[in-house]
Amino acid sequence: MATSALALLDQTLPFVVGGGSDRLSKEIFSILESNFLFGAQTPELGAGRVRVLSIDGGADGGALAAAALVRLERQLQELSGNKAARVADYFDLAAGSGAGGFLAAALLARGMTAEQARDVVAKNRKVFSGRAGRGGLFSSRPEAVFKKVFGDLTVRDAAKPLLIPCYDMATAAPFVFSRADAVEAEAFDFPLWQVCAAACGVAPAEVASLDGRTRLRSAGAGGAAVANPTSVAVTHVLHNKQEFPFAAGASDLIVLSLGGNASASDHRSSSSSSILRIASACQADMVDQAVSMAFGENRATNYIRIQGNGIAAGATAEAAMAERGVESVLFRGKKLLPQTNGERLDGVAEQLVQEHRRRMDNKTPTVLIKQSATPRTSSSSASTLITVSTNSSSESP
């Protein structure tokens, strides 16, 4: 223990002289986070980095995240020279809460392009922002949006690891819908339309697994309870050695976290829905700051957070791509970055394409996707997935 303390002091001592107490506190916090939360382990040489996509619910109903995904997909196509490239091709795992859960599932399970997913979100803004009511496209049955998109697909049908967190009112505890669990047992496999509807605060309130053994009553708060799923995604990767055997710490990850637009929330309103949206934004920012500090010196390249800075109130989601990005600062909120959100996304695209090419030349697998242990006994079979994806891939609900 004495040796560790001396090593920590050696790393932080130079900052006392030149950086002041604030910088010292920041560096100590980063080192502690990296060493004790992630673990000071040596990564496997040549194993590559796990690519993680995290998508917030957001008060804007996923509008900014959807716009960011469209820009990212176009950039991936340009850099790779492959016009058929999809966002899902360049990530190993996707986690989403609220509207972000729908976007993640649409890309990984439904096989939608980023533009198709964006169009669904744009046409059903009230549903995805948790404010579905009279006058909407599906005012009487808002869950119809999710039924039309996913049909009989379940969590198990996702092509890659998928995580959608929610808060279970029955047990007063968080619950994560996970593909890794779904492929092991039907007790943890759920209809995707129900999962996404519950995550967005739309009926049904009770979600049951395929075999009926697992039931939960989701909080109808549109993802407010677990607004930012980044910590859920990172924890899953670092502790799931079966699928991510070489992920030992922050340096082994590339995390793209897509937030919402702060200007979409009316902080002056005292309504219950506004209070929930404010609480959701606070939770998202707390997770962002904690994860950013945990990544330490790697956060400049390995952790990229895209969100609206709230300056241009009423601006479109696409306009937010031209806004300067913001970064969480320990004990001081956020600071503006010199790069725009769009420029930062382009930088992520370059990293993803480089990692994709590196894997093509490397025989060591970075990720080992867990396959289904047994054939599904329910009506939602693998053949159903192929039929739905093929016949409806060009539709835009």
TrEMBL record:
GO MF term (any one): hydrolase activity
Organism expressing this protein natively: Lolium multiflorum
EC numbers on record: 3.1.1.-
Enzyme superclass (EC): hydrolase
Name of the protein in question: Patatin
Function: Lipolytic acyl hydrolase (LAH). Possesses non-specific lipolytic acyl hydrolase (LAH) activity. Hydrolyzes phospholipids as well as galactolipids. May play a role in disease resistance.
Chain residue ranges for the region called Disordered: 357-397
Keyword Lipid metabolism: yes
Family assignment from sequence similarity: Belongs to the patatin family.
Domain notes: The nitrogen atoms of the two glycine residues in the GGXR motif define the oxyanion hole, and stabilize the oxyanion that forms during the nucleophilic attack by the catalytic serine during substrate cleavage.
Comp. bias (Low complexity): 372-390
Keyword Glycoprotein attached: no
GO BP of this protein: defense response; lipid catabolic process
Gene3D superfamilies: Cytosolic phospholipase A2 catalytic domain (3.40.1090.10)
